[in-house]
Design brief:
- The chain contains 27 helices and 27 strands.
- The chain is rod-shaped and about 215 Å long.
- Helices cover about 50% and strands about 20% of the residues.
- The chain has three domains: about 230 residues, PAS domain (Beta-Lactamase); about 130 residues, 2-Layer Sandwich (Alpha-Beta Plaits), CATH 3.30.70.270; about 230 residues, EAL domain (TIM Barrel, Alpha-Beta Barrel), CATH 3.20.20.450.
- Bound molecules: ligand C2E and calcium ion (2 copies).
């Protein structure tokens, strides 16, 4: 029992079957043992009874034989002739009578023992001494018994001869009759073995028939049995037997003899063998029945458990199939509990997967889902299948977010996501983050279908939308890449579509553009610029050029705008338009801007007092700490008065953290530094900034000036700007004035100052001084223009 729980079974049903079969087998074994013991006991009792009965029969046979010999001896003792002959010593007559009788009795010894102990009529004189030993018993009146004569155990019977007084005894002896023993064996109801044993000293016995010693194991029980008249178990003649010993009366003290009856136990049990077989068979059948029944019962319990086990394993692999519930027992309840659990896990997992792979705001797939999906598509599609990846980026989304709030920005994204999904029906649409979306068009037939899709997407996005009472007209730019030409994995395709997107934005927003290898080259070039820029700072490859701004009211040069130039060792002069964005992206604009500020102030310090210097400050500089320190440091180092420094900023500085920006602007202005808003009119909501900060000057963007002469309403716009600025107490500068006609019109509109190639291109620092000495040429130009107007 204690062993069973330690055995490791793979299945509960085997364990139960083994347990119950073991228990049953144990009980069976105990019953069989009891049965076998009792069968043996019954057999022993029955055999013992037979043996005792046979012993009694032998007793009677023994007594009969004794009486037969005694009767014959008495008859002869009473015979007158014999008495005469023995009295007269006629031994020949007596001997013949004895011999005659001996023959008839079938005895092997017949003698006369005289009262004084002489043995008369003996045929074998060698036996005389053994026979003489009988005298004592005869003299004490014992007339029969066993005696050893001539080494043989014999049955002796005697009768006294009275003539008339006792003269002697007639003694007959015969070998213990083997035939009698065989007869006895035959008489018995059971095939027993009968023999006579004689004492061979204390505790030792020998077989009377062949003289062999009985083994010790037999001798001891024999002695016991003699006293108790009980059967005993012993190995007799090499076979396990049941024995019974019965002592025979002895004539001579010491000549003890006994009848030994024995019966082989195997034979005794043979009768019970069929019963035992039957018993064994029943036990075996019972065992089989128990095993089968237990196993089947166990199966009935364990089968649902196994199904549960399998289901649990499936569950671990993400298979949420429900289990069939049968019945209403504990197992059924367990199964329905399991089903409930599986359902809940499934729901939870779906929720988690949804969260992990979907954008919470728009419900579109997210970036990880995009990667998984595209990589899977590419894996599945053969090399021939073409897949197009359209990367969308909303134009000026940041401005919407910043000016109208994130709530409106979110609403716009949700609305546009729905439009994308609706337009790109058979495509996979994902939001990569921010205002960046991607549309994957599988199995593209050719560029034409992608062209059509891109146009439709741009059109769909561009539909005006009203959010919180304001109408917004969104727009998007799209970059497109193809698999397998532009990449065979999601990451490469996306990177290349992104490059194409940059191009689309550069080409003018609201357009789409396909990826080309050259874009990669351009990206490569940009990286090159980046590393060259780092060196440029160290090597001092920058220089400042200055472009004058002519004050129309005062009729003189009021200020110079500092414009950076990069003397690249191999490329020559690099335009700020090419490297300023890179410097801004990498943060290198900060040290570069600081150098510009120091250099500009340094140069301006040597100009006449009424001439200011205008320095462009990037929004990136505004959002990094240290800008005011840089400006104050430059002023202090050059000794330039703060009111002679004008900082030019663009609207982009308001796009993030406008609070801090305004604070910084105010603090600069409180020092006397002038603030100009550059490129005015190109931004999203230029007008809204005018109210938030009292700029000293607006610089009207070059595009308006160029449009003055070509586009009809442009003049009115410029007029409105100058009027507004004047109303707000701000000066205005017209940028990019190239023609006198433009100048005349600006003059008429009341523009404060002008800047452009018409007056002067940006010039090296060393050439500035010359302009002060001959200002006449400017004055003349302006006169001319005014006259034209
Ligand atoms: P911006 O601030 O608008 O500067 C005026 C630009 O217009 C200058 O280009 C100038 O050469 C150009 N320009 C002036 N008059 C005319 C004209 O009549 N016709 C035409 N077509 N162009 C004219 P530049 O020097 O190439 O500078 C380009 C831009 O680079 C600047 O635009 C400014 O945004 C940026 N930049 C230049 N220097 C610096 C600098 O030191 N720091 C920062 N942060 N940006 C700078
Ligand atoms: Ca400028
Ligand atoms: Ca400008």
């Amino acid at each position: 029992m204690a062993l069973l729980p330690e055995l490791q079974f793979r299945s509960l049903s085997t364990r139960l079957a083994v347990l119950y079969a073991g228990l049953f087998a144990g009980v069976l074994l105990a019953v069989s043992a009891l049965f076998s013991i009792s069968v043996q006991e019954i057999a022993r009792v029955q055999v013992a009874r037979q043996l005792v009965a046979s012993g009694a029969v032998y007793d009677r046979l023994w007594q009969q034989r004794t009486r037969q010999m005694q009767d014959a001896a008495q008859l002869l003792a009473r015979d007158f002739g014999f008495r005469e002959a023995s009295a007269t010593g006629d031994s020949a007559t007596a001997a013949s009578a004895l011999a005659n009788l001996k023959g008839r009795l079938n005895a092997n010894l017949a003698v006369v023992i005289s009262a004084d102990g002489r043995v008369i009529g003996i045929e074998q004189p060698a036996l005389r001494r053994d026979i003489a030993r009988l005298w004592d018993a005869l003299d004490s009146g014992q007339m029969s018994g066993v005696a050893a004569i001539g080494g043989r155990t014999r049955q002796v019977a005697a009768a006294p001869i009275m003539a008339p007084t006792l003269t002697g005894w007639i003694v007959f002896a015969s070998d213990i009759d083997a035939r009698e023993l065989r007869g006895l064996e035959k008489l018995s109801a059971i095939p027993l073995h009968a023999g006579v044993i004689v004492s061979a000293g204390p505790g030792r016995w020998r077989d009377a028939a062949d003289g062999s010693l009985l083994a010790g194991v037999v001798a001891a029980p024999v002695a016991d049995s003699l006293d108790k008249h009980e059967a005993f178990n012993a190995s007799i003649g090499g076979t396990a037997s049941i024995g019974f010993a019965k002592s025979l009366p002895a004539m001579v003290a010491g000549d003890r003899a006994a009848l030994l009856l024995s019966y082989s136990r195997a034979e005794a049990l043979a009768a019970y063998r069929p019963v035992q077989w039957a018993m064994g068979l029943i036990a075996l059948l019972g065992l089989i029945v128990v095993i089968v029944a237990t196993w089947r019962t166990a199966r009935r319990i364990t089968e649902p458990l196994e199904r549960l086990d399998e289901a649990a394993e499936r569950l671990a692999e993400g298979d949420y199939r429900q289990l069939a519930v049968e019945g209403r027992d504990e197992l059924a309840r367990l199964a329905s509990g399991f089903n409930r659990m599986a359902r809940e896990i499934e729901e939870r997992e779906q929720r988690i997967t949804h969260l992990a792979f979907n954008d919470v705001l728009t419900g579109l797939a997210n970036r990880s889902m995009f990667h998984r999906h595209v990589d899977l598509l590419l894996e599945r599609s053969g090399s021939g299948d073409v897949l197009a990846l359209l990367c969308l980026d909303l134009d000026h989304f940041k401005t919407v977010n910043d000016t109208m709030g994130h709530g409106v920005g979110d609403q716009l994204l949700v609305a546009l996501a729905a439009r994308l999904r609706e337009t790109a029906r058979d495509c996979f649409v994902a939001r990569l983050g921010g205002d960046e979306f991607v549309v994957v068009q599988p199995l593209v037939a050719g560029r034409l279908s992608v062209d059509r899709l891109a146009q439709e997407l741009i059109k769909a996005v561009a539909r005006p939308i009203e959010l919180e009472g304001q109408q917004i007209t969104p727009s998007t730019s799209i970059g497109i890449s193809f698999s397998p030409d532009d990449g065979i994995d999601a990451a490469t395709l996306l990177r290349n579509a992104d490059l194409a997107l940059y191009r689309a934005k550069a080409d003018g927003r609201g357009t789409y553009s396909f990826f080309e290898e050259s874009l990669n080259a351009r990206a490569q070039e940009r990286r090159q610029v980046e590393s060259d820029l780092r060196l440029a700072i160290v090597r001092g490859e920058f220089e400042l050029h200055f472009q004058p701004l002519f004050d129309l009211e005062k009729g003189l040069i009021g200020s110079f705008e500092a414009l950076i130039r990069w003397n690249h060792p191999t490329r020559g002069l690099v335009s700020p338009l090419d490297f300023i964005p890179v410097a801004e992206d990498t943060g290198m604009i900060v040290p570069i801007g600081a150098w510009v500020m120091r250099e500009a102030c340094h140069q301006a310090a040597s100009w006449p007092d009424h001439v200011r210097v205008a320095v462009n400050v990037s929004s990136v500089q505004f959002h990094r700490s240290g800008l005011s320190e840089t400006i104050l440091g430059a002023l202090a180092a050059s000794g330039l008065a703060p009111h002679r420094l004008e900082v030019e900023i663009t609207e982009s500085i308001f796009l993030e953290g406008s609070e801090a920006t305004l604070k910084l602007l105010h603090s600069l202005r409180s020092l006397g530094i002038r603030i100009a808003l550059d490129d005015f009119g190109t931004g999203y909501s230029s007008l809204s900034y005018l109210q938030s900060f009292p700029f000293d000057k607006l610089k009207i963007d070059r595009s308006f000036i160029q449009a003055l002469l070509t586009r009809p309403g442009a003049s009115a716009v410029v007029r409105a700007i100058t009027d507004l600025a004047r109303a707000l107490g701000m000066e205005t500068t017209a940028e990019g004035v190239e023609e006198t006609a433009q100048l005349a019109e600006l003059y008429a509109h009341g523009c404060s100052s002008v800047q452009g190639f018409l007056l002067s291109k940006p010039i090296a620092a060393g050439e500035v001084a010359a302009l002060f000495s001959e200002p006449g040429s400017f004055g003349a130009t302006i006169e001319r223009s005014a006259r034209t107007a």
